[in-house]
């Protein structure tokens, strides 16, 4: 199956070898924020499996394992022979020391959280720092480097790590025991910048403007002038920006198919057509109303995975039927993001499936189309930056993520028109109040969930036995991890009062204060 990926092979790259750290994606993002393209690959990859011709530097990520234990992830030591600068972070530092002849100990002294480093060598990696300067950094380690490998010098120390940073200026190998990519290390970006530019000699060649120009050219080169292209439009950020970008390349030959599955938020279908269609962004939209078909298939179904599979199957059937009406279709646009690509990769092989992700991934095999995935190497914030360059309003770009299966995974239990009505009305009130409080754009997601629980209540002088709504609001950078968001008490009071008073069938509102992990953001 062919694929058009908007990324030029001539661009400089920094490889980030992933050893399982929760911060690996953050390292890649910070590198890109500094203007250098970065790519994450599993630590299990061998050098011979990867083209390193345009690689300017390698970063070894952190990870939960111990380099001196029998279950340490496999690693090809030939990565150290690529003749490019290498930066080890946390586990990456311990690995570098272990492989190159130093000594790593599983010490009794551990450091988790904030720590104070003392800079002992302010050249190269710590250029711009004062010698003996005290620096705040975020630590997360049990093991530590006890003895330096040959040719290395100590660059910094901390109370829990006699070697908090080390370097070999002859080979341009450097390593740090702390995490420079997190906001808890205030000068971490400065350290990464020193490595990328002063040590590795990278150039700032990664920008939204350059990406758009390059992508349009690649798409035009790949799609014949007589061909049509289809896109599964959801109205969310990813598919909208992808559609606008491809439309810049092929014009009205892009046909956006928007399926109203009856599982959308209040007035969602009409708003999408209004904002993105002929009178908005000018996209060529085919609106398919399929609520009856979806709800009929979901009737009586309560198991979450079964719901997702049904919705995915019916979506493909509806999408396929509409696509067959369009002649000379050769390509399909998908808003696949980098986290979607690497989420299933772990240091020991494919990760366990937590829940089936609904997208149009099953279509190419059935329809024999070539894929256009312009954002396959991008993160969400980068897609938003591209959208701004393309002139898409912030009202669209700042929309919170919405699950592919829609409200079906927020109605716990059976999905019925009445239960969807209750959820839509409650969700509208919650989001309306969140926006009025000025919190919408600071939250990753804020939504309501209809629980399969009834409880006793009192309204007026009468007893009620009605539904329960849960409020869910989380803060996150990429959705991989999330913390529940603190919401002002008065806001919660207003939301609860409005939902109970305005939404017929609800007499109780509860608040979800679970983080991810161990919980997921969505309930199903």
Sum up the structure in keywords.
alpha/beta; 524 residues; Rossmann fold; GMP Synthetase, Chain A, domain 3; 14 helices; six-stranded parallel β-sheet; nine-stranded mixed β-sheet; globular
Characterization of the model:
The radius of gyration is 26 Å and the shape is globular. It folds into 3 domains: 10-199, Class I glutamine amidotransferase (GATase) domain (Rossmann fold); 208-397, 3-Layer(aba) Sandwich (Rossmann fold); 410-511, GMP Synthetase, Chain A, domain 3 (2-Layer Sandwich). 30% of the residues lie in helices and 25% in strands. The protein contains 14 helices and 23 strands. The protein is α/β, with parallel strands linked by helices. Helix 7 runs antiparallel to helix 8. Residues 5-9 and 344-361 have low confidence and may be disordered. The strands form 5 sheets. The protein has a 9-stranded mixed β-sheet with strand order 3-2-4-5-12-11-10-7-8.
**CATH architecture annotation of the largest domain:** 3-Layer(aba) Sandwich
* Largest sheet entry: 9 strands, mixed
What share of residues is helical?
25-40%
Sheet with the most strands: spatial strand order: 3-2-4-5-12-11-10-7-8
Count up the domains: 3
State mean pLDDT (0 to 100 scale). Answer: 88
CATH T-level fold name of the largest domain: Rossmann fold
Give the CATH level 1 class of the largest domain: Alpha Beta
In short:
The chain contains 14 helices and 23 strands. The protein is α/β, with parallel strands linked by helices. Strand 2, helix 1 and strand 3 form a beta-alpha-beta unit.
């Amino acid at each position: 199956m062919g694929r058009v990926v908007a990324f030029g092979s001539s661009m400089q790259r920094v490889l980030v070898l992933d050893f399982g750290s929760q911060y690996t994606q953050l390292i890649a993002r910070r590198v890109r924020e500094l203007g250098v393209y970065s790519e994450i690959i599993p630590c299990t990859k061998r050098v011979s499996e990867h083209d390193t011709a345009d690689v300017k530097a390698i970063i070894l990520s952190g990870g939960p394992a111990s380099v001196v234990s029998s279950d340490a992830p496999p690693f090809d030591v030939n990565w150290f022979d690529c003749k490019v600068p290498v930066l080890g972070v946390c586990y990456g530092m311990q690995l570098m020391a272990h492989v190159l002849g130093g000594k790593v100990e599983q010490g009794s002294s551990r450091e988790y959280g904030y720590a104070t480093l003392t800079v002992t060598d302010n050249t190269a990696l710590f250029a711009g720092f004062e010698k003996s300067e005290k620096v705040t950094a975020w630590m997360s380690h049990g093991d530590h480097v006890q003895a330096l490998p040959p040719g290395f010098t100590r660059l910094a120390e901390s109370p829990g790590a006699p070697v908090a940073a080390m370097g070999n200026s002859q080979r341009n190998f450097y390593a740090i025991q702390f995490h420079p990519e997190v906001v808890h290390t205030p000068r971490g970006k400065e350290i990464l910048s020193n490595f990328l530019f002063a040590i590795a000699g990278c150039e700032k060649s990664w920008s939204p403007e350059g990406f758009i120009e390059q992508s349009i050219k690649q798409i035009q080169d790949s799609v014949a002038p007589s061909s049509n292209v289809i896109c599964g439009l959801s109205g969310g950020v990813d598919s909208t920006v992808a559609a606008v970008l491809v439309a810049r390349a092929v014009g009205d030959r892009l046909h956006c198919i928007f399926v109203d599955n009856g599982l959308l938020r209040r007035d969602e279908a009409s708003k999408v057509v209004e904002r993105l269609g002929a009178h908005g962004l000018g996209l060529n939209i085919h609106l398919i109303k399929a609520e009856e078909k979806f709800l009929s298939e979901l009737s009586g179904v309560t198991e979450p995975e079964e719901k997702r599979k049904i919705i995915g199957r019916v979506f493909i059937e509806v999408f396929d039927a509409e696509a067959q009406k369009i002649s000379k279709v050769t390509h399909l646009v998908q808003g696949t993001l980098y986290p979607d690509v690497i989420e299933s990769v772990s240091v020991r092989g494919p990760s366990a499936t937590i829940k089936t992700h609904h997208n149009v991934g099953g279509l190419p095999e059935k329809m024999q189309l070539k894929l256009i995935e312009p954002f396959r190497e991008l993160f969400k914030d980068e897609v938003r930056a591209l959208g701004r360059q393309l002139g898409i309003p912030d009202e669209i770009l700042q929309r919170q993520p919405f699950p592919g299966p829609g409200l079906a995974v927020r109605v716990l239990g059976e999905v019925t028109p009445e239960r969807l009505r209750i959820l839509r009305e409650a969700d509208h009130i919650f989001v309306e109040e969140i926006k009025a409080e000025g919190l919408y754009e600071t939250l990753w997601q804020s939504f309501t969930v209809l629980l399969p629980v009834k409880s006793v209540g009192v309204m007026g002088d009468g007893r009620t036995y009605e539904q329960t709504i849960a409020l869910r609001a989380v803060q996150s950078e990429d959705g991989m991890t999330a913390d529940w968001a603190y919401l002002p008490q008065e806001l919660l009071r207003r939301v609860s009062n409005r939902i109970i008073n305005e939404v017929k069938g609800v007499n109780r509102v509860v608040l979800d204060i679970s983080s991810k992990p161990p919980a997921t953001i969505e309930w199903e």
